[in-house]
Model the fold of this input.
Amino acid sequence: MHVNGKVALVTGAAQGIGRAIAEALLHKGAKVALVDWSYEAGVECKAALDEQFEPQKTLFIHCDVSDQEKLRDAFRKVVDYFGKLDILVNNAGVNNEKNWEKMLQINLVSVISGTYLGLDYMSKQNGGEGGIIVNMSSLAAIGSNTTDWPECGEQGLATTASVCEPLLSSYNYVTKPSVES
Ligand SMILES: NC(=O)c1ccc[n+]([C@@H]2O[C@H](COP(=O)([O-])OP(=O)(O)OC[C@H]3O[C@@H](n4cnc5c(N)ncnc54)[C@H](O)[C@@H]3O)[C@@H](O)[C@H]2O)c1
Done:
């Protein structure tokens, strides 16, 4: 896929890997919606990107991806603002085993619901033009993990990949880019 002129939605885009992905997409000529639950980091990120790229190339959306209604609204805002969606990066994630239910909600459930929303907007079967969905995971999902991460969450993401795979078979499909800690 040529990235130039495409519209991307990146969750957890205010910092870290998500921000780097957003920046890389902008360098390639895409427009990027920066979705993050940290208002301060999101505003700071958008301001920094505005110094490098035209301000209208990015849109910051303050959203907790584990809030289904807010996530749905975020997709709607992206299409209202940019007119379409071509690339979805479900990157937002946390490492907080003390609040494991919220962690699973963010790291697993939101990835599944985000993927379905991506299909709603991009699937050719739904009148869209197709696209790419990238679901971020971890090496912990595919092998031995001796860190403090509760393996269930990350392994859940591996499961997500297999749940989503049949749905995405008509797409250019990328999943589980691994990042070593
Ligand atoms: N960095 C690593 O070594 C590593 C290893 C394994 C997996 N990962 C995965 O890669 C992804 C990115 O990691 P990172 O290191 O850049 O993390 P990070 O903590 O630096 O950045 C995560 C971003 O996601 C945002 N975020 C978290 N929960 C959110 C929510 N509910 N709604 C919206 N935004 C939310 C945060 O505000 C932050 O901006 C995560 O999914 C993480 O699990 C990273």
Notes: Residues 119 and 168 are 8 Å apart (CA to CA). The radius of gyration is 15 Å.
